[in-house]
Amino acid sequence: MKILVIGATGPTGREIVKQALERGHQVTAAVRHPEGAGFSAEVRLVKADVMDAASLAAAAEGQDAVLCSLGSKIDRKPTTLFSQGTRNLIAAMEQSGVRRLLCITGIGAGDSKGHGGFLYDRIIQPLLLDEIYKDKTRQEQIIRQSGLDWTIFRPGALNNGPLKGVYREFTDLTGVTIGSISRADTAHSLLAHLEDPTSYGKTITYCY
Questions:
Q1: Which CATH number does the domain housing residue 63 bear?
Q2: Backbone angles phi, psi at 15, to 5 degrees
Q3: Inter-axis angle of helices 81-96 and 130-145, to 10 degrees?
Q4: What is the pLDDT of residues 130-189, one digit of tens each?
Q5: In sequence order, what are the residues at sequence separation of 6 or more whose Cβ sits closer than 8 angstroms to the Cβ of residue 121?
Q6: Cα dist. 207→30, 120, 122 in Å?
């Protein structure tokens, strides 16, 4: 498949690009600074910014699917990066006729709030990530209201561990506390569901 990766230069985005190439996909990476991206020649680079709708429309042209791994630095100030960036991305996909969207949000967005364990739920999220996850909740709402074939992915606490290929996936969080997962297995989960129509319209939360 021809896939566009948003957030390709982040640590999870790089794993997505790497594993997508290994699976034989044609990868386009949307990056703000192509000259410093550091990808192999196999990766097609397109200069784009999620807050610039026109640049996203050009990046989405001719793609079969979009994998969004949009991230930001920890910041306690209100943000619209995730919600407005995703709104722009969806508009670009609709303009280009791309229907498949796989998007990473995280534990603390929507109804996953309160499922990250005591330290995360009581200290880390409210003190450091509250505004980010308020916007990720808005991001999820925008995705659900789109007419796309979407899947939302909520990984547990991310680490740089190795690819295991074995993890637990949940669509119902009743009584569930979500632990950690590597970025490599996060990429693995997205790509495993890339061509899986049974995952359309689902929110998948996963950890070891």
A1: 3.40.50.720
A2: -65, -40
A3: 20
A4: 999 999 999 999 999 999 999 999 999 999 999 999 999 999 999 999 999 999 999 999
A5: 113, 114, 115
A6: 27, 15, 20
φ, ψ for residue 38 (rounded to 5)? Answer: 75, 25
- DSSP assignment of the chain equals -EEEEETTTSHHHHHHHHHHHHTT-EEEEEES-GGG----TTSEEEE--TT-HHHHHHHHTT-SEEEE--------S---HHHHHHHHHHHHHHHHT--EEEEE--TTSGGGTT-S-HHIIIIIIIIIIHHHHHHHHHHHHHHHHSSSEEEEEEE-EEE--------EEES--TT----EEEHHHHHHHHHHTTT-GGGTTEEEEEE-
pTM above 0.90, yes or no: yes
Structure-token match 């295991």, residue found: 164
Contact predicate 108/133, CB 8 Å: yes
Instruction: Retrieve residue 21's tokens.
Output: 């190439």
Which position has the token pair 């960036």?
85
Host domain of residue 43: 2-207
The contacts of residue 200 (CB under 8 Å, 6+ apart) are 149, 150, 151
- Residues 97-110: what's their mean pLDDT? 97
Beta-carbon count within 10 A of 69 CB? 25
Number of domains in the chain: 1
